[in-house]
Amino acid sequence: KLPLMVEEILNFGESNRELFIKSSTYSIIPITVAEMGLTISWIFSSDPKSISFSVIYQEAEDTPLDQCKVLIPMTRCNSHKETIRGQVKVRNPGIYTLIFDNTFSRFISKRVFYHLAIERPVIYDGSDFP
């Protein structure tokens, strides 16, 4: 579990991070977001073989799991063959959790190479208008 704040992700730069996920387990990356309108985007690949991926939203840390909103249902990704890209728009402040699930694999541990980015919306204020 790696709780991240928006500022930490903004400081990622272009570098990739790595997760080691043992067989029959999963890893989560909770991202705490306070402001609406941001876009959280990700790119990841896995080695060896596929990994399952999901994104859930929690209003607060103490929100029961059964009250979390599934933004992207658990999907098996062939991320060992192609890079997976995606994004989610922040509509409400809270915790957006990326889940990398290897529970289906009984013997093979996986490495996930990922990159996260946060984009702020461009708000046109007309200041460059002559």
Automatic annotation (TrEMBL):
Domain GOLD, by residue range, is 1-118
A single BP term in Gene Ontology: plus-end-directed vesicle transport along microtubule
CC per GO annotation:
autophagosome; late endosome; lysosome
PROSITE patterns reported for this sequence: GOLD
Q: Which PANTHER family would you find in this protein's record?
A: FYVE AND COILED-COIL DOMAIN-CONTAINING PROTEIN 1
According to UniProt, the name of this protein is FYCO1 protein
In which organism is this protein found?
Semnornis frantzii
Q: What is the phylogenetic placement of the source species in the record?
A: Eukaryota, Metazoa, Chordata, Craniata, Vertebrata
Question: Which gene is annotated as encoding this protein in its UniProt record?
Answer: Fyco1
